[in-house]
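Input sequence (244 aa), recorded before submission:
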Amino acid sequence: MNKQYKHILVLTGAGVSAESGLATFRDAEGLWNNHKVEDVATIDAFERNPEYVHAFYNEMKPELSAAKPNSAHLALAKLEKEYTGEVNIVTQNVDTLHEKAGSRKVYHIHGQINQAVCLNCGQILETWDAVDTQTVCPHCHIAGMMKPNIVFFGESLLYMNEVERLLKACDLFISVGTSGVVYPAAGFVQAAKYHGAETWEFNLEAGANNYLFDKHIYGKCGTTLPAFVDELLKSAEEKEKNND
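Predicted structure, token format:
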């Protein structure tokens, strides 16, 4: 690998957190953490029974709060810290394992489990404590207006303006642990490729959109990604030495 990249964009999915012991919450039966998606992950469900929806996300918080970053998260944090080019992460995960590993440029397009948003004023409350229909917004001081800051089905993804800018700018696009099924995230590789980026897929097996990637590395990302990052850093260091 002898190319020096200026803008690296990494898309991560459930596969990157699986090795930290976090299950893929939406399974093949369409259930999310053993609940029907339409009962816990839609605006209709929240309007119909906000107590139930809040309870669902509150139950998930202890597991996600206690989870530790694995070697894939740590490798990406190392890349951001040590690589000479810019490194950004766009994640579909609602956990905070990238941040725990040390990554700073992280865009949670599906929201974060440790946040709630006030439907009255738009203020974000960041907390690992339980949030419910009695919670008072610290900004507008109104109770009962906090919604888990999770993108429900039918809602727009977060940070899409920033993501669009990053997709246009990146010259290396890396997808880690994603199925390639859920859009629009599954289409990010196509956008990056259109704007001239080299594209790599890291996965246990080929994703649904694997034909869009230039290169594929299959296996546990906790093993494959650190080796790839070390190679990137080594290549960049050698290139710097040759330029001196």
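Checked by second reader. The chain has a mean pLDDT of 91.
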